[in-house]
Amino acid sequence: MRILLVEDDSLLGDGLRVGLGQDDHAVDWVRDGAAADAALRADRFALVILDLGLPRLTGLEVLRALRGRGDTTPVLILTARDAVTDRISGLDAGADDYLVKPFDLGELKARIRALVRRAAGRGSPEIRHGHLVLDPVAHAVTMSGKSIELSRTEFAVLHELMQNAGRVLSRERLEASLYGFGGEIDSNAVEVYVHRLRRKLGAGFIKTIRGVGYLVEKAVERD
Ligand code: CA
Q: Could you report the per-residue pLDDT of 140-192, keeping only the tens digit for each?
């Protein structure tokens, strides 16, 4: 399975990459928080191993952003021996488990197996809005059970709007959700994607709040 390893210590990172690779895991290794954040926005991983003390963005900031997007990818944090407050903050921010450095590779592997087992039994993280259902894992959108074809970037914009339903998102905020896709983003890219989404989902689903941004209203709960 594909694992994202976030660790700025070269020796430990390399050891983990090799050690986990022996179990046929595909390990993507990044060494700072901003790279981790970009990787998590662009790709899906079965599990994240996340050091907390990182350059550019801290592990906690990466974790809070991940959970803020409604992403339930299992996260195991790595903390220093004396950093009990870090462990508490990490678990409170949505980490599923932790290990204190230095740790045994065999124990790490056992915890990975346990986390993946638990995640498999978890309910679907799909986001529902009336008749519209967005599944972030399968990258699929259906309306009244009928599949809607969206490009990756259209999907990313819709995902960001739906998981923030009820809040107006600025164009800059929506652009940021596209950064993980690489390449230059045109200044009118968000307008273009919103226009295409309206054609596919109906004109009224995404509202323009003039001078502020875009809004998907909160879904009304139906029985
Ligand atoms: Ca570190």
A: 899 999 999 998 889 889 988 998 889 999 988 888 767 655 556 677 889 99
Assign domain 2-119 to its CATH architecture: 3-Layer(aba) Sandwich (3.40)
pLDDT digits (tens, 9 = 90+) for 48-66: 999 999 999 999 999 999 9
Instruction: Say if CB 60 and CB 52 are below 8 A apart.
Output: yes
CA–centroid distance, 31 to ligand 1, in Å, is 9
Dist. CA 51 → ligand 1 center (Å): 6
> CA of 23: how far to CAs of 43, 45, 100, 141, in Å?
21, 16, 22, 34
User: Could you tell me the pTM of the whole model?
Assistant: 0.57
Give me the residues paired with residue 91 across strands: none
For the structural domain made of 127-215, what CATH number should be given?
Answer: 1.10.10.10
Q: What is the Å distance from ligand 1's center to 139 Cα?
A: 32
- CA 180 to centroid of ligand 1, rounded, Å: 23
